[in-house]
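for the writeup, i need someone to sanity check this before i put it in the appendix. the sequnce is what the collaborator sent (i think, or maybe the updated version? ugh). structure was predicted straight from it, no edits. if anything looks off just tell me and ill rerun, i have time this weekend
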Amino acid sequence: MKQFSFEKLNVWQKSKDLSVNLYKITEKFPDTERFGLISQIRRCSISVASNIAEGTGRNSPKDKARFTEIAYASLMELLNQFIITYDLNLITKDQYESTRKDIEEISRMLNALRKSQLNQ
């Protein structure tokens, strides 16, 4: 089976893993959050990985970098939602700290990817 270029990127792999983890965490949220935080968190997390993947399909470095910027913006939106989730006591301190570390690592990786795309 062919492996596409985005699948080889560590930042995409980590973003995908974050999405999977967040799906598992949000499964335990109250039903009242199904159309609120659950939906928002899941869509944002998927958006990060999806925009990385879509950017690899673009031809110009500027276009690639633009999709990396969009992925970063979605990641920041996700962080905001996760902070609110923690403040509402929907997750444990360990879940918050672990996920926040993942988000910080992905943000550094996205910044590095964008710089390399713009320097091509």
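The chain has a mean pLDDT of 96. Residues 51 and 70 are 7 Å apart (CA to CA).
thx in advance!!
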